[in-house]
Design goal:
Order of helices and strands: HEEEEEEEEEE
Distance between the termini: 48 Å
Strand order of the largest sheet: 1-2-3-4-5-8-9-10
Structural class: mainly beta
Shape: globular
Helix content: 10-25%
Length: about 140
């Protein structure tokens, strides 16, 4: 009987650990509604990789994304940032496609990926729901393709 209870406890703990991972896909900040462009958000994959992308409405920010690996322990997510993607070159102009920054944008730029020494580490509280995640109080919604 004790052996059976021990096996049941191990199975329950194993199942709970399996579901403590973030479902794969893109998680958008603030809303589950997708307009012309995506807002900022995280892409998580099953191999524990992540990428954070800035809002596609922000045409002035030269940094467009960064990413690396993540790990969840208890109620915390740990990030290890290993690369950053940024715009290089281009020209500053008015472009009404970009709605942040009063329609100013850097256009005709080239996107390059810079590898970083995996020393940029961060951690935050996490709560995983079925259609949303909460990271340090900010809500992100699952966007289905």
């Amino acid at each position: 009987m004790k052996r059976l209870i021990l096996i049941i406890v191990i199975v329950i703990l194993s199942i709970q650990y399996c579901f403590s991972q973030i479902p794969n896909g893109f998680w958008q900040e603030k809303t589950s509604i997708v307009s012309d462009k995506l807002l900022a958000g995280y892409t998580f994959s099953k191999d524990h990789k992540f990428e954070y992308s800035i809002s596609e409405y922000d045409g002035l920010n030269p940094y467009i994304a960064f990413g690396g690996h993540y790990l969840i322990k208890g109620c915390r997510i740990y990030y290890m940032v290993s690369y950053i993607r940024e715009k290089v070159g281009g020209k500053l102009c008015r472009n009404h496609i970009f709605m942040l920054n009063d329609s100013w944008a850097i256009t005709d730029s080239k996107v390059v990926m810079k590898k970083l020494i995996p020393s940029a580490k961060a951690t935050e509280l996490i709560k995983i729901g079925k259609k949303y995640i909460i990271l340090d109080g900010f809500k992100y919604y699952k966007i289905d393709n």
